[in-house]
Each structure stands twice: as structure tokens, then as C-alpha cells.
Amino acid sequence: MDVLRIILQVLLVLTSGFLILLVLLHKGKGGGLSDMFGGGITSGAGSSGVAERNLNRITIGFALTWGVVIVLLGLIQKIS
User: Fold this and answer.
1) Where are the domains of the chain?
2) Is 79 within 8 Å of 35 (Cβ atoms)?
3) With left for phi above 0 and alpha for psi between -120 and 50, is residue 26 left, alpha or beta?
């Protein structure tokens, strides 16, 4: 069980880091801090619709992986 726990912990750290980066790559929707710091100026020069959809899919995939790893770590903790 120790090897599985270490593998899941490493996977958790990696998916957490990638998830943070992927969320930060998303285009701002306006009205929040992104407009306050100049995000509204470049909103027209953002990524295309296809790139944004792909980014959404990748983000959802990493989020689901992250959630599964959290649940598995919790189950391992409960068993031990």
C-alpha cells in the first residue's frame, strides 16, 4: 500500500500544478479582477473558440483525475 500511496501523492502534486496552470490560461469573462488589471483590453485578441474548447476539455480531464486521486487517497487512508 505504501507504493500505491506514494504514486497517488506524486500524481496529486502533478495534477494540482497542471490544474492551476490550466485555470490561469483561461480567458477572463470580464467584470472581475481581469478587467481591473487590463484583461478587458486584450479580450478581443484572445484565443479562438476551438482552442478555448480544447483548453476546457483538458482542464475538465485534469480536474476529474485530481478528484479521483483525492478519493483514492482518502480510501487508502481509511483502510490503513
Assistant:
1) 2-79
2) no
3) beta
Cβ atoms 63, 19 nearer than 8 A: yes
60-66 contacts at long range (C-beta below 8 A, 24 or more positions apart):
62/15, 62/18, 62/19, 62/22, 63/19, 65/11, 65/15, 66/12, 66/15, 66/16, 66/19
Report the predicted TM-score, pTM, of the whole model to 2 decimal places.
Answer: 0.74
pLDDT for 37 equals 66
Enter the C-alpha cell of residue 25. 490560461
Task: Dump pLDDT digits (tens) for 5-50.
Answer: 999 999 999 999 999 999 999 877 765 555 556 655 555 555 568 9
Q: How far apart are the first and last CA of the chain?
A: 9
